[in-house]
Specification:
Elements lengths: L12 H19 L2 H17 L9 H19 L25 H20 L2 H12 L4 H8 L3 H21 L7
Length: 180
């Protein structure tokens, strides 16, 4: 261990500074309110600093996103925006696939599509929004996402399918459907 570095498993100021922008962006997308998002990030960082539970088995950012996800779920529950839904049958998971294009026209079209997706994310029910954000945006493992959302893997697949389907419909409604 180099001089001035914290021991393994202890968060450094640099770790926190590096992860904070991603935490803010995730929280903002998850709750849709900048002030609430900032509070949730603050609570997350306080909990992370106060907790000796970081074991270094994952990246610090991933660990912090996990803590933040629990804070977001708690916030949504307390705000009455979190509903438990029954799952009738499993639906196949499919992907929202927006390929990167090198031309300026394609880059503009992609930016416009991302704006539509960003707005549509805010309209998704909270569980669908968090499922899509955790899996597709943050790259959190499915097992951890199931733990955070309190759902079984089959239900997670359905949440992802529904959320992705609604995002795709928003793109189609905006005239941005993919050509076959």
């Amino acid at each position: 261990m180099a001089r001035g570095e914290p021991p393994p498993g202890v968060l450094s100021d640099a770790d926190i500074r590096e992860a904070t922008p991603a935490l803010r962006a995730y929280a903002r997308r998850a709750v849709g309110d900048a002030a609430v998002a900032a509070d949730l990030v603050q609570e997350t960082l306080l909990a992370a600093v106060a907790s000796p539970s970081f074991e270094g088995r994952s990246r610090v950012r991933t660990w912090l996103i996990g803590i933040l996800s629990h804070k977001v779920v708690d916030h949504l529950r307390s705000a009455g925006r979190w509903r438990t839904t029954d799952v009738d049958e499993a639906a196949p998971a499919d992907l929202l696939d927006l390929p990167a294009h090198p031309s300026p026209e394609s880059a503009l079209a992609r930016r416009q599509a991302m704006d539509v997706v960003q707005r549509a994310l805010g309209d998704l029910p909270p569980r669908e929004r968090l499922a899509v954000l955790l899996i597709d945006v943050e790259g959190v493992e499915r097992t951890e996402t199931c733990n955070v959302l309190g759902v079984q893997p089959t239900h997670l697949r359905i949440l992802l399918h529904r959320g992705r389907h609604r995002l795709r419909k928003a793109l189609e409604h905006a005239g941005m459907s993919r050509s076959p």
